[in-house]
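Model: You mentioned two targets. I'll fold them one after the other.
Researcher: Yes, keep them separate.
Model: Target one:
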Amino acid sequence: MILRALAMLGLLATAQGAAAQEVVNFGTGAVLRGLDKLDAKVEDFTLETGGVAVLGLIEIALGECRYPVGNPSGNAYAYLTIREAGVAEPVFRGWMIAASPALNPLDHPRYDVWVLRCTTS
């Protein structure tokens, strides 16, 4: 039973390594969706790599966007830095994944931000 579990873990690690290697293309930007929970306003916006967008009291900066080889409209991985007005430290800094937004979400009482896809030239 233990050997079977170890074998399954080995297969899972190999599959994850292969999947990680496939995400090598870099987009020119990203399409994001923001939600103001207080006003129930949803806004989609496109950011260029290195660009900044403002949603209410937060500022969203895109570091880079990556997507699977041969599928630019597929699962996007975007590195975002999100700052709130008047707060020195970012409220979010890290990778957001389009297919799994709950994996590493913005934890803010008023705003939600999701990655939809990368843009290409």
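Model: Target two:
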Amino acid sequence: MLDTCYDLSNNKTVLIPKIRFYFQGNVKVPIYPTGILFGHSVSQVCLAFAGNSNASDVGIFGNHQQKTLEVAYDVTGGKLGFGIGGCS
């Protein structure tokens, strides 16, 4: 499922770009580096994002990105809230 992978074993340092998700209402949710890369070793590290096969498909904000967030669900109001500092 994760198709963009890297072998980082020959690198002394790795710079991970800052990534944010933008939601309606000018909500910006930063993703910590632990939610950007997924891997078991430096020889197999993948971007923790998977594309949809069709642009009209529903996108999923995955659990790997949510690990460092507190997520609040307002079911009645039809809203989500994000707070920094969830489980890491």
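Researcher: Noted. Anything on target two?
Model: The chain is about 5% helix and 40% strand.
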